[in-house]
Amino acid sequence: MHNVLRKLSTPEKIQTYLDDLPYHKEKEGETCRSPRLVIEYNTAHCFEGALFAAAALRVNGHPPLILDLEAVRDDDHVIAVYRTNACWGAIAKSNYAGLRFRSPVYRTLRELVLSYFEHYYNLRGEKTLRAYSRPVNLARFDAINWMNSDKPLWAIPEYLCEIKHTPIFNGAGSRMYMDERLYKAGLFGRAE
Fold first, then answer.
1. Tell me, what's the pLDDT at 189?
2. Which end of the chain is more exposed for a tag (fewer CB within 10 A), N or C?
3. What's this model's pTM, rounded to 2 decimal places?
């Protein structure tokens, strides 16, 4: 596994690897696979993609950080975050085109999170992003062998649900306008 991760020496290479993986639709039940199992099964969903990206970042000298984007009437989205030249960027696996990679140009995590707002919507066309967590260093889960485990890693998403999230604005339940072209563009290439 480490040989694969070492070859993914830049955030762009990690994102390309994730983009080339089929999106895991969990038809046989929910999964929470380690990065090693992502390689073995050759598929990942959002959460598994974030863990994989964090593992690749770690092997290549960055801290293994993930961040939870919290939504209403929708699923949360988990991204791996990293810093280059004091700016934040992100790597992500998503079934929506606009919820993936972000170049490291954001001075704050809030700026990075807000870059996802327009692209974060449910199939009813409602913009749903409402809050975000602080970055979580996955080194705290080394005791459960998060990079190589054969067992499901439910302790990590459970932790993400427990920690404080910062609201991005005061309209927590309000519905917002969704542009039809943006809606269709975000679904481009979506796994059914």
1. 73
2. C
3. 0.93
